[in-house]
Amino acid sequence: RARVLIQSIIAENHDVHLALTSRRGHASRLARGAASTGTEIVFVLGGDGTLNEAANGLAGSDCALAPLPGGSTNVFARTLGIPDDPLEAVRSLLSAIDANQIRSVGLGEVGGRYFLFHCGMGFDAAVVQQVERKAALKRYAGHPLFIWAGFNTWLNHYDRSSPRMSVKHGGKLINDSYFTVVLNTNPYTYLGHRPLSFAPAATLDNGLSLVVLRTMAFKPVMSIVKDLVSGKQLRDSNTLHLADNLPEIEIVGHKPFPYQLDGDFLGEVSSLKFTWVPKKLRLVCPLIA
Predict the structure, then answer these.
(1) Which residue from 176, 178, 183, 198 is spatially nearest to 258, judged by alpha carbons?
(2) pLDDT tens, residue by residue, 114-144
(3) For the domain that residue 233 is a member of, what is the CATH number?
(4) Residue 141 neighbours by CB distance under 10 Å
(5) d(Cα 164, Cα 240) in Å, to the nearest integer?
(6) pLDDT tens, residue by residue, 68-88
(7) pTM for the model
């Protein structure tokens, strides 16, 4: 029903063609095809993974992305200030289009694929893998499922006995990372209505931000989690390495490590190289963003 109402609202003043995804990767092909035929704007109703696919299809084109929240968390849409309700969201985006609030923004790139808000390596990717194994519950259980997956991964599905990777940037080497996140925007995610802010300096207009967790000991990790939930800003320390506005980052595993991109688990790799690419995607932004 929401899809029909959204289509009718957009069609009041615009020509609309509806396309439905049917498999993983389909959104990229649909978006790329729309851009090649001169489509001006692609509205995407879906979760963060679908938005990521569409952004990869549109990157480098003149066609703009308009994100509509349709998943369980909708990190990117919420980061832009787009309402959680899809009908409110489409009206907000249409107002932004009328006001010409469309701009070119930067994306992170790794392994030939762009990302909108972050790439997680190590523990958080292992958590995402556990969530995807319960995909049928994801939409309905939402955040409680992620909390369960976090504890289950901690106890049963992640080797915490030694660091998993080294991190290189700007001449610096951190060789004892258990969990690394490269961010293109902030917050990292949302817990209910509460944003978990990893890197306030991460925006669509400057380089990548980096968060490296250098321990998996229970007490310091729980202290960091407490700070995140209470809204305190993370600080560089002997357990956390933080850096902002980075053009490039290289990750080398001590052994293969899991990674996820914009909330999609992509498997295990031995190394990754990140680059920030400015003004790569045309994006419809609401007036409050």
Answers:
(1) 178
(2) 999 999 999 989 888 887 666 655 554 556 7
(3) 2.60.200.40
(4) 16
(5) 15
(6) 999 888 999 999 999 999 999
(7) 0.92
